[in-house]
Amino acid sequence: xxxxxxxxxxxxxxxxxxxxxxxxxxxxxxxxxxxxxxxxxxxxxxxxxxxxxxxxxxxxxxxxxxxxxxxxxxxxxxxxxxxxxxxxxxxxxxxxxxxxxxxxxxxxxxxxxxxxxxxxxxxxxxxxxxxxxxxxxxxxxxxxxxxxxxxxxxxxxxxxxxxxxxxxxxxxxxxxxxxxxxxxxxxxxxxxxxxxxxxxxxxxxxxxxxxxxxxxxxxxxxxxxxxxxxxxxxxxxxxxxxxxxxxxxxxxxxxxxxxxxxxxxxxxxxxxxxxxxxxxxxxxxxxxxxxxxxxxxxxxxxxxxxxxxxxxxxxxxxxxxxxxxxxxxxxxxxxxxxxxxxxxxxxxxxxxxxxxxxxxxxxxxxxxxxxxxxxxxxxxxxxxxxxxxxxxxxxxxxxxxxxxxxxxxxxxxxxxxxxxxxxxxxxxxxxxxxxxxxxxxxxxxxxxxxxxxxxxxxxxxxxxxxxxxxxxxxxxxxxxxxxxxxxxxxxxxxxxxxxxxxxxxxxxxxxxxxxxxxxxxxxxxxxxxxxxxxxxxxxxxxxxxxxxxxxxxxxxxxxxxxxxxxxxxxxxxxxxxxxxxxxxxxxxxxxxxxxxxxxxxxxxxxxxxxxxxxxxxxxxxxxxxxxxxxxxxxxxxxxxxxxxxxxxxxxxxxxxxxxxxxxxxxxxxxxxxxxxxxxxxxxxxxxxxxxxxxxxxxxxxxxxxxxxxxxxxxxxxxxxxxxxxxxxxxxxxxxxxxxxxxxxxxxxxxxxxxxxxxxxxxxxxxxxxxxxxxxxxxxxxxxxxxxxxxxxxxxxxxxxxxxxxxxxxxxxxxxxxxxxxxxxxxxxxxxxxxxxxxxxxxxxxxxxxxxxxxxxxxxxxxxxxxxxxxxxxxxxxxxxxxxxxxxxxxxxxxxxxxxxxxxxxxxxxxxxxxxxxxxxxxxxxxxxxxxxxxxxxxxxxxxxxxxxxxxxxxxxxxxxxxxxxxxx
Length: 968
Fold this sequence. Notes:
By secondary structure, the chain is mainly α. 66% of the residues lie in helices and 2% in strands. The strands form two sheets. Strands 1-2 form a two-stranded antiparallel sheet. Strand 3 (760-763) and strand 4 form a beta hairpin. Helix 31 packs across helix 32. The longest helix has 28 residues, at 235-262. It is elongated, with a radius of gyration of 44 Å. It starts with 48 loop residues before the first helix and ends with a helix. Residues 33-69, 80-91, 97-113 and 145-163 have low confidence and may be disordered.
């Protein structure tokens, strides 16, 4: 039926209808109902009084109703009028909120202290660090429910005389002291924590049941637990668990007294305050009656805040308790008691730190007892070495010193001076280095180095001290003046460490300081010294790989010029210390990631490039068939980013040589090859832009070399889809650069890959067909082939014929998609029949100039059009057999429009085909949108008018077609 197809020449000019334009001063989305704060609309440029009055009659939109007359965009416009953008408004509101909050904080007495002294942030660290596998014991009378446990409350309720009630409660405390305690032995750590939690719940439950005496008993028994040092390594965690209960007890007492003092009407306020004061005194009297020192101290410290109701100075109580702690004989128990005292003292915001300093001095006074014979005997019995024992003092002593020097350097120099005269002062020095401000330590850097180098403490090595000093100096913003001399003094001691573990542990903490403050030569020397000390033993490298990695990370992260670091002599050598391939790969990934974020935008330094190539090759060689896809993706992204950063400016040949070298180096990564192909194509286009499409012999040879690079590289990529895309892109680049033979080869290879394309692709756990991709690819190819001149060796429209052959042999999942490609092929063929193509490439002689509208060429075009139409009709028949009437009708109308625009309707078979297609679509009009066919008919009417105006013979045939389609 389509054998008579003849392309009609275009007898009319294609014009574009532009929308009328006019100047405006208002945003098109801005409603004219914007009102100011007084209810009047703000004046705008280019508007007059009449427009303002008429604009107020705009219909009310839902958004307008929801936002008090203005939609969100209008609100933003109003804010813009007031020179306040939304972010500025939010910021000002936040600043106002902070000011109000700070005023409330100043007026009210709150127990929230600075985050530096927040104990809650330390709890989890202590519980995770100080654990034990030994059996524990606990002494209490409240984990079981004896018959007498509930008699106290009932008996108290019977008492009516206050003196009798007080007497009875004192008798209860005496009964407790007489020995109702039960001992639980051989508890695991988890069971011990569960028992402590049970005590916590029992205390809260007793309090809410008005069993105040029982709650006090539980607090006393918990305090007694802190005297137990039978498992030394667990004592810091034991302290945390028990003091949590004491904190809850103190809060319950305080909240109860606070409620009692503020409840009731205003007229009863003074009486209530007096009652609260009496109750508070009663609590302290009860606590004073506790016979043992440690529970009496802890329980009083727990309710220290209640001195508020006695109108007494906290300072007196803090000083008294400080002196009372001197009666605790065990130095470990005593230091944690002082820690708890300072915790509670900080919570009441006592401004005077005299009592804290006195606690520290008391600890220094008894410090030497930690090395006494009795302590050593206990350590031997529990098989605990001195290193572990001294570490137990860390949390308490650190907190004491941090509280002492927090926002106040009054005692710093005095403490440092006193510690120098203390024998075995390593423990105290460690606490000082952790607690003191880095700025103070930096200001006294040489003094600290001198003190640390002279320290000789059993259980605290110099390596630990210098590691702590390095960590503090690394975070200091103000450094000593003679940094070079200071570092030399530090390493005079560090270099004397013969144990590799001590040496690496020390230098690890100094890596950041050196990278941040020293020259690149010092950094290089630092890496060289580590390499010379460690590389002699493979065992040492494997054992301390994490410390070596930390050193590398700190150097790379804090080095200001990463490229200067890459060219240093010992940097790449340092990588060889990582014996395991996986460890070296992780280090290389980190280096490339830092280079990606901190490196220069471009580099052309050959030494830097060689270093990065060496690092990238390590990553490339690590990739194999067993490597997971995510790992490949990460490595590929890092290497691709490095490749894109290499830029030799106008030395294009050197740039291409680098890409050739990279292709040989990174042979295991498809994504890198993809990037290389894109980069070389970009290089070819930059060359084309420089010569402005007028290649010389040299530039043309260079561009051909670029295309050849791409043509050789693309087959190494495993993904057929990527190969097709890259061949098409490379062919387009070759075409633009007038490399016609290379362009034909690329397009031909791309089309030959279509049969190898997978029918479906797995994405996000779902199988997705590749039909849509292929249709998009072929449409792109058709648009390109418009400009590709025919090769004299291949014949007329060889590439188009190859595309149509590929289409016939490919099995589409969706039956309608091939017809879409054929329709676009019909568009392309019609363009080939025109005297002049709608677009050209400078310097490329396309078929319109090559054939000059030759009749033989037009005959071939018409024959191909007939073939394409036949294929479309065959697909329409298949859709009808499959009862896909909607697709059949839609494609019929699309083909009808092309026949009207492109074909000679004077041919009977063509005209009859057009009529049949229209009738077929109308037959299935129910499956289409209601306005679809009327819109198509209006399009035909517009075509008839254009043809009639241009006096084309096609006009009469279009009119007959409209009549046959019963157009009204």
